[in-house]
Amino acid sequence: MFLHIRGMVAVGLTSVLLASVASCGGSEAGKKTGAFSAAILEPSSLMPANYSEVYGAQVVSALFTPLVTFDIKTNETRLEVAESIESTDNKVWKVRLKSGWTFHNGEPVTSRSFVDAWNFAANKKSAQLNAYVFGEIKGYREVASGAEETMSGLRVVGDLEFEITLVRPWSQFRQLLGYPAFSPLPSAAYKDPKAFEQRPIGNGPFLMEGAWQHDQQITLRRNDSYAGTKAKAGEVRFKIYQSFDTAYNDLLANNLDVLPAVPTARITEAKSLLGDRFGESPSGRMEYLGFPVNSEKFKSPGVRRAISMAIDREAITKAIFRGTRTPATGFVPPVVPGAAPNACGALCVHDAAAAKAAFDAAGGIPGNGFTIGYNSDAPENKEWVEAAARQISKDLGVNVETRAYPKLAVLLGDLSSGKVDTAFRTAWTFYFPSPENYLKPLFTQDAGENFSRYRNDEFEALLRDGAAAKDTEAADAKYAEAERVLLDDMPYVPLWYQGVMAGHSKRVSDVSVDSFRRLRIESVVVD
Amino acid sequence: MSRYIMSRVLQAVLVLVGATLVIFVITFALPGDPVQALAGERAADPAFAEAIRARYHLDEPLLQQYGRFLLGVLHGDLGQTYSGQDVAQMLGERIWVSAQLAAFALAFQIVIGVGAGVLSALRRNGVADTGVRIFTLAGLSIPFFVTAFVLQLVVGVKFGWLPVAGTEDGFLSYVMPGFVLGSLSTAYVARLTRGQLTESLREDYVRMATAKGLTRVRVVAHHALRNSLIPVVTFLGLEVGALLSGAVITESIFNLPGMGQAMARAVYLGERTTVVGVVTVFVLVYVVANLLVDLLYAVLDPRIRYA
Lengths: 527, 307
Known about the structure:
The structure holds two protein chains of two kinds. Helices cover 31% and strands 20% of the residues of chain A. Chain A is built from 17 helices and 19 strands. Chain B is flat and about 80 Å long. The chains are: A alpha+beta, B mainly alpha.
């Protein structure tokens, strides 16, 4: 409620102030040369395997560099700390490290730094949120349950060489290694993890200048002995905000240099006020309308496809999201290398007549109506869910209602335990750039996030073929096939891909945001 | 006197235990699993959920968890947030922010509120009085977050006279939020002072003082105003507690890492220990403020004595 009022007040006021603000000066944002500030929200954690959101990822990836990183434009995998990562069977992976990489405290980065870090993160006692990403490594189960201390699938061969054995072949494992949880840790991390988290020592392009000042700031200094491409700016200060509405005002007042996400309500205004200092980038996050496929109402794929065609994605992304989302054209966003272009085709395009025909052909929906559940703690959810409900009601001649959950945690909790029998709003962000990451974690029968309880053996066989494929092209072909199966069954309706709208001050240039919605702070130039 | 204070402290302990128990029970009724809240946009991994439940004893019965909390408090330990921060340490940093904010708000209330009230009472129905009444009406009727946004955009963004947000500029950072936070009650204090003082000025002892030939200033300041301030002090005393605890929205708009914000986030995340820790501090503040108010009565009104 409050957020809505806040948005309205802000929009109303700024339209009054618009002209005058554009010409206003203000105090200089940064005092030191080569230093700039960027807005974030309070990170949930600064441990590479423990954060839950993009702001933790933002800071962690400035402090740590994993074996591989992704190209900001193409998301292709590039070797970083790794000299080579090779496998003949997709199951046993041999990693060779480059020499000369060190942690911020001078400790050399060796194969131990990786193996010990992964064992630590997977350990039950460490209670790291993202430990599940090690799940495919042999021996993970034993470590996660607390029975073992080390994963049997990790073997140190030499100082700069180690070997990873997976439970089953997985062609996409090289990409997964770019996920920040796979970063190396120095030995200091295990002595006192709690203290380490307040001032992490990594091997990344920036190092901590002082400790994490909770809810105030995190200051990073350039790592001048970085073994990769050195950062351009000398210092970055992450100013921690409670809302980006305030951060946006700070940007206008010249007290902030980079705002990685302009609030949706201020987009139109920001475009005209900031001009070429406003930039849009696509991301790997997308939203869906999901169905419990075993429920009486939603068991027909024809009905699910009809609902997909009844939603006017174009109108909603323009009117409600003000262009910060683009209509989905499949289950894999175009930022992912190997994504099949426009896989969804007509099924994802609004066509009232075709939708109605498909709906009637599928025999309609029992009770001629259904409900869409959504969490109301994200500002735009109520608006778009209600708009979609109206469109579906009108096009299909059914009665669609909405049901608000007070918090995302409540909706996710109910979805995980299978308590949701209505359609629901859900979202997904990839953690490594592969089409598989949009298919396997959401739609295979034993996946934790399979909220629709979808099960299709043909789909899963295609994923297994992809995992065993000898090269990327063969794998991507299998994933494209799997995606087509999924589109035909439509357990989720893909809705839109999220974009990121960043704004910056006149002091900085070369501001870019990657598909993980992280600001590439190492490439920012301070004028 | 010391016996009186002792009995008040004993009462405070009872209030503290009662209030924390009630809040503790209420946090169990908060919607959503706190472990899921930690996991953000993804469904919490079962192994992780189990590890967190074990670490923070979330799998124990309610009363056992409460007992654990009380035992911790006796050792000066308020527990940890689910992201591993020490609650006592976190509150120690935040209470300083909240205290500065409350001090500015209170200062505005006393200086502007009491000042305007006195002015108004002395020049009843004059231009000043009408002006004060119009402003207080506006102060009472405009929602304070509207005042906050307007000031932030005009004073902060457009003219750059005061910082927009944050605490980097020292005391200057607290001027605007303090004014906003105090604005509603400033209007109330002005009206209260005006009413009380108007009445006092009609009292016999005021006429007596004037008849004795005392100066106008002395009559108003030492005789009339002093007696009029008891309700105002009562109000301000309770206000201290409210200012420290109820500044959630102001803290959020001006990005001040204070107690209110810690509370709001902890409630949202369902972090029992943090919620109860913050409440403990709030209860203490209220109890101390109330005690001070009662002691101030004796200073203001010589007829009141605590044996």
